[in-house]
Amino acid sequence: MLALTILFPLIGFLILAIGRDRLSEKLASIIGVGSMGLSALFAFAQIFSFLANAQKAVSVQLWTWLSVGDFAPNFGLYLDGLSATMLGVITGVGFLIHLFASWYMKGETGFARFFSYLNLFVASMLILVLADNLLLMYLGWEGVGICSYLLIGFYYTNRANGRAAIKAFTVTRVGDVFLAIGLFLLFVVFGTLDMAVINDKANATFVMNDPTLMLIVAMLIGGAFGKSAQIPLHTWLADAMAGPTPVSALIHAATMVTAGVYLIARMHPLFVLTPEMLLYWVGGVGALSMLVASFCAMAQTDIKRILAYSTMSQLGMMFIALGVGAWQVAIFHLMTHAFFKALLFLASGAVIISTHHEQNIFKMGGLRQKIPLVFWSFVVGGGALVALPFVTVGFYSKEAIIWETFATGHMMLFWAGVCGAFLTAFYTFRLIWLVFFGQQKTHADKLTGISYALPLTVLLVLSTGVGALIHPPLAGVLPDSVGSTLTEGKHTAEIIAVGMTLFGLATAYFLYVLNQGKLLNRWINSTFGGACVYWCYHGLGFDALYDWVFVKPFLAICKFLKNDPVDKLWGILPWCASLGSKLLVKTQTGKLGSHAISFGAGLAFVLVLAVMMVIK
Asked: Of 29, 433, 458, 535, which residue is most buried, by most CB within 10 angstroms?
């Protein structure tokens, strides 16, 4: 059954890719959604069997992938508590997104092509999380990379979409190169890429902060940053909104962006031996990414880009949890985030369809009466995003992360998390208020359909406190955190975090409702305020910086190489021969006097040389 979870979407991809435009929309929907439904069905059957069998790990060796000397990695699958959690999230949320996409993409050109990419994406992600060795994991890792390129650039007739796809592919490839180097180093040290063997032998092979291990860990972190869009490899994430909205939900909620978090959690024994790198490179960069993304989200006007930056922010929270050793909490937040972020993205897609593909939140307003299900989806999903106490699933995972930073004594990370809670509450209220309240500025249609309503309803329920009842079976797979054994100070940390969340909501309420944006407009129209908004709107200038540091020099080199300088260098030899020929031709004048003079000069030169030799 474990292999069938991958096989069903893979078969769906092959049928849809071969049939393409020859398949009707209805048939393509049945194949695309049905294959994903079967995958989810077998996945949950396997998960329940795993739980009923005392959570005993399951290993399935399908075949030997390749054999080169002593290197013979298997195409093997491995199910433990961590991969079971990821399996449930990917197939469960992925099925709901597929179902919603069958409604969202109606009438679109390339309908079957879209679902073929979507099926292949899920199959690649399942290979990534179920692989028992790093080489097979890397196959899935690259699979989601190429599928993200295909899906982000789905509307390829628009050149901007094509550029966004190329940007996402290129930036994530940088991280993939780092990861590949890390795998090479691991193989040199351990002689295998089997993850269980590497994790078991880590303590016996390396001492604390071993230089070789630090290099390996640095390479793995680089790979994780690329996939999970952390600074400095984060610039692709907002531009990935060029793809259809269900793609955004799939990439940003349940699959690709969580790969980096999964990688670090899976290889945690290596990171435990490099505590400073874990704290500063993983946790510190995660905190910085969270704050940067939050500031950028506050200035965006596109509904999908706001949610994209919020994804980067929440991934930063997961990296903070990893950085302080709260492994189980990080994965728990990964799961809860998949629920409410998929809900928010699908709801944003419904808003876009209702308003005839309008995405500017300042051109919306007053939509809560027209699309009530979408409104409540945003309220619940937004509440989970800001971690409203007790009633939303985000509270139980997000506040746990903030508590872990407090319990471990890393107060800089704690206050970063608290600041992030304030900013998240502010931009989430701003988003919901401008879209659903006030005066209606764009005509909106009412929405119907079971494939539209069912995914939103299920995810809405999971985004409430009900979702927190699902406990990932991570005991014995990931170490217990410090905060799980302490209680002193827990309420203090929670009160501070919840207080900042409520303060953020109150601040946004005052500025947007009571003051009606007058203070904000005055700030935006000031020189300094306008510069800050412009800076945040353009991602704090990272794209411009990379353009100057990487893109322009690269294009200059390409322009130089365009004229083939190597060929021109070798052209010096025939040029010299041609020049010599032209000079010698000029001596052949055909005049007797000229020849006599040259003969005499040459004879005199020879005589002078002869005399000099005799004298010597």
From this structure: 29
